[in-house]
User: Fold this.
Amino acid sequence: MSGALLRTVEHLHGHLAWLSTAALYHPTILLRRPRRRAVGAAFAAAALITTTAALGAAMYPAYRAQLKPAIFASSRLLGLLFERKEHLGVGAVVLAWAGLALHLRARDQDWDRPASRAAFVAFAGAAVFATLAASMGLMVAVHRTFT
Amino acid sequence: MAPRSLAGMVATPGCIAFLWAYAAIHLAHERGLDPAAAAAISPIPLFSTFVLALAAAVTASVAAALVHRVTGRRVGATPRLLAYSIGFFGAVMVLFP
Assistant:
C-alpha cells in the first residue's frame, strides 16, 4: 500500500470508527424494550463496524512495520493502548453480529425473551468496546500517524 | 426451525466460545505460549488469534445445533452468561494488552 493510500484508509478508518460506535448505540437503546423491532439499525451497525474493522485489518501489517516500533519507542503507554484497541475492536465486531442474529431469532420466535435480552447485552457490549477502541485509537492518532 | 432462527439459537454459545477462546489464546501469547497452530495460520498474532477463536465459535455453534437436533432441546440464549463473558473478555484485554 502506498503512503497516500495508507493515509486515506487511516482517515476513513478513524471516521468510520466513530460513526459505527454511534450506530451501535442505536440498537442498544432500541433493544432495551424486548419487543422492539430494530433489524435495520442492528444490521447497519453490524455492517458499519465490520467495514471499519476490515479497513483496520488492511492497514495492520503496515502499522506493525512502520508505526508500531516508533510508537513504542516514544511512549510504551500509547503503544499498549493501541494493542488494547485492536482486541476490543475484534470483540465489538463479533458482539454486533451475535446481537443481530439474536434479535432476528427473538423476532422469529414470537419475541423469545432470553434471546431478546441477549441481543441487548451483545449490542451494549459492542457499543462499550467500540467506544473504548475509538477513544484509544484517537489518542494514538493524535500522537502519530502514517506519513 | 428456520435457518435464521437456528443461527440466532447458536449465536450465544458461539459468541461466548469466541470470547473465552480469544482471551485464553491472547493470555497464552502474552506468556510466550502460542499454540502451534497460531504461527501456521499467520505470523501476525492478532489475525491468528481471531481465526482460532472463530474456529472455537464455529465448533460451539455446531455442537449447540447438534444437541438441538439429537435431543430436541434448545440451547437457551443466556444473557447473564454472555454478560459475564463480555466482562471477562474486556478485563483481560484491558489488563493484559
